[in-house]
Design a protein that fits this description.
EC 3.5.3.4, eight-stranded antiparallel beta sheet, Jelly Rolls, single chain, Allantoicase, 2 domains, seven-stranded antiparallel beta sheet
Amino acid sequence: MTDPQWLRLPDLASRALGGSVVSANDEFFAERENLIRSEAPVFNRYTFGAKGQVYDGWETRRRRTEGHDHAVVRLGVPGVVRGVIIDTSFFTGNFPPSASVEACGVEGYPSPLELESADWQPLLPAKALTGDSANFFAIEDSLRYTHVRLSIYPDGGVARFRVHGEPVPDPRLLDLSSVDLAALENGGRVTGCSNMFYGSPQNLLLPGLARVMGEGWETSRRRDDGNDWVSIRLAAPGVIRLAELDTSHFKGNAPGFGTLRGLIGGSWVELLPRTRLQPDTRHRFRLAATDVVSEVRMDVFPDGGMARLRLFGAVPEELRKQLVAGWFDRLPDAQAREVLATDPHFGRP
């Protein structure tokens, strides 16, 4: 099977981005939190606990009454959902025959009880599932959501639940005089990459410090005269004032040099000239550029790995207003009405 294009988008539900499974009506055999773990599920045969074989996933008891089971996930970064994966790996005689997905957009941090009365919108009607498989489903919806609800019919086990999409964070919460415009949680996004043999370039934009080398981006070894690169569409066009190129944990495989360029219209301008990089080091560079750029390309020479890329900058006021307007247009109707009713500063400069 050819991987769908939306699979290249970040998993908005991932624990690595701050996602959380806020509730589940049942988790008798296996805990709901397993649904959003970043690592792939595993299975150890003949590993039994007090309730039977231990599964790396979410598993409910066998239903003896009408109804179905469900789990609610708060997205680590709200956004537009483009595809979901309902992964039933290792669940064979106990996977759900079918599942559906709904979503809602809400203000603030509602409790599980409050979320029950939210305006849930259908994203995926009930679809048949295959056991011990990653079930891929494309989503056709353009609105921004903060929570998703996975329903399984009638019961069973799901190893992982991935929610791939485009981050659309709340611009009202950003200090746009100095913000990491590359951060995935702020709306930054990878748009291109020359090589991701050992690690995804999405890792460069994750929150916090990488704990191990495997949490960064790493290319295969080059055997030609070229170099590797990654391009980032910024959360909003801005002036980049400070760049951080972090090679933490990359010791014998860090790039030797790096450059940064910014996109203005259809032209690339230099932000950071070719600069020597050290292994296992957080490099911080003040930039003298004054141009507003919408995308940044980092080239590494000739290849290697990097843990994080931070691009701190400022967004012009007029562009900030456009960002807020674009965010508002993507809200579900119920959340849009709530914003207008409760936020006295909305729409003001």
